[in-house]
Specification:
The chain is 21% helix and 23% strand. By secondary structure, it is of the alpha+beta class. It has one domain: 2-Layer Sandwich (HIT family, subunit A), CATH 3.30.428.10. It has a 5-stranded antiparallel β-sheet with strand order 1-2-3-5-4, covered by helices on one side. The protein is globular, with a radius of gyration of 13 Å. 19% of the residues are buried. The structure holds guanosine-5'-monophosphate (5GP) and zinc ion. The site of zinc ion has 6 residues, from α1. This is Histidine triad nucleotide-binding protein.
Length: 111
């Protein structure tokens, strides 16, 4: 997608701090970290959000990547995965992504 921020990051047209990459997924440090570890995990295919994913194997690729990143970063005490979706869900970038956060204790449902 021409005007998509994350498509540009994936294509290397905008800089990012890469954490992980495979054929399907690109993951990089969030620019505005909400935890000591805050990685944005993004499918290379452009989907606006979860509702556009009709092929669930795509989500499997993301979860495989998350498990590899978790191993790589060695976040033994646990982590949080968040997928903000749509306006009420707090999504600000309209390219499906999962926040992987760790390194502090999280509250629930907020914080
Ligand atoms: P959302 O709010 O859509 O769930 O998440 C978008 C995330 O992308 C935010 O946490 C925001 O900090 C991050 N973000 C926005 N622009 C950039 C950027 O240019 N580079 C990086 N690394 N992260 C970004
Ligand atoms: Zn995109």
């Amino acid at each position: 997608m021409q005007d998509c921020l994350f498509c540009k990051i994936i294509a290397g047209e905008l800089p990012s701090t890469k954490i992980y990459e495979d054929d399907y997924v690109y993951a990089f440090e969030d620019i505005d970290k909400q935890a000591p570890v805050h990685v944005v995990v993004v499918p290379k295919n452009h989907y606006k959000n979860i509702t556009e994913v009709k092929d669930s194997s795509q989500v499997g690729k993301i979860f495989d990547a998350i498990n590899k990143i978790v191993e790589q970063l060695d976040v033994k005490n646990g982590f949080r995965v968040v997928c903000n979706t749509g306006e009420d869900g707090g999504q600000t970038v309209e390219h499906l992504h999962f926040h992987l956060m760790a390194g502090r204790k999280f509250g629930w449902p907020a914080g």
